[in-house]
Protein: Putative magnesium (Mg2+) transporter
Organism: Phycicoccus elongatus Lp2
Amino acid sequence: MATTTRVFVGRLAQLSVFDPLGEKLGRVRDVVVTFSTQRTRPRVIGLVIEVGSRKRIFVPMTRVISVEGGQVLTTGLVNVRRFEQRANETLVLAELVERHVQVKVGGEFVDAIIEDIGLEQAANRAWSVTRAFVRKRTGGSLNPFSSRRRGETFVTPIEDVLDLREVKAAQSAARLLETYQDMKPADLAEVIHDLAPKRRAEVAAALDDDRLADVIEELPADDQIEILVGLQVERAADVLEAMEPDDAADLLSELPPERQEELLEKMDQDEAEDLRRLLTYDDDTAGGLMTTEPVIMGPEASIAEALALVRREELATALATTVFVCRPPLETPTGRYLGMVHIQRLLREPPHAPIGGILDKDVEPLTPDASLGQITRMLANYNMVGLPVVDDESGALLGAVTVDDVLDHILPEDWREDRHEPDQEHPEVVHG
């Protein structure tokens, strides 16, 4: 007699996926199910697998050989096209877990939250949702965004769960974010992009300001605007402050003037002043592309101090390659710009020496009105990662243009959406 395979999605997620020869293909990130009026139980159609390059692909359950021994074994035939959720599909971790439902208990219905979903494989090898692990409401209001979990928990047949298919209340995203906590902002942005607008807003609400700022910078413009507009004004202002100034200015420029002003009024005065200045420049000029927060130091600072500054984890890689040296004040617009020091030069000099003695003065600074063509030619000619933007009249450093911001403007406007287009060249590869 065949043994029935049962597993909860909470255990299945994060398991490694292997081919028949033992080669690791990736790990499980989510489970895809579909609902039907002809079936009482949702059908499990496949797994979302994260492969080596943080790319999420779809593996049908028909290619899953077993889910045993803390691993998932597949046939080895994998479609490498990026996973795209269809309209009739539901992601268990992203959309069902932490959903508010009513559960039939002893002839009565009680309010509960789904904590986990149980799957089962039938004799014909088809998989379906059979159980739900739920937490019963104990009284008072059930805050969907609270991380505190109280109340009786129990496992119930999926047939006794109402409202599983339709969302009727706000839903926490804490468990979803726990699953994706190790993701880089660009990868998490792809996950959020694929969610329905309501769920996307709930995930945004659950992220802290810094993490949300990093994710927004990686999203397409439409998603950026949707999320920012959906936040309370005070929260939106805090997120803008946490973003890179040039990215924040680009996002603000997409909003109506009255909304821009409302957000700027709520921001820190100095942060708002930087953004107001950036908004005065055309998008395709050095002024419009620059960040107002490059690494800036005075000429008397030591090489050891400079290395400590560029070593900060929160500093973007492109900004960490160059220290711009100026007279005080050392916040943009600074005192007179003196020159720049590259990180490789810092690594070759004695730590106690002042950075003012190793300045690179050969690169002519950009003016704020320098065109995109001028910027790209200078970056290419001098093999630079970042260039200073200096005011013609005062000689003050206004900011710096980095190569990543230039690429963002050279690429097509919808390049972030293109990351989601299927790979047509090699739709399938066979492992093993």
The first strand starts at residue 5 and ends at 8.
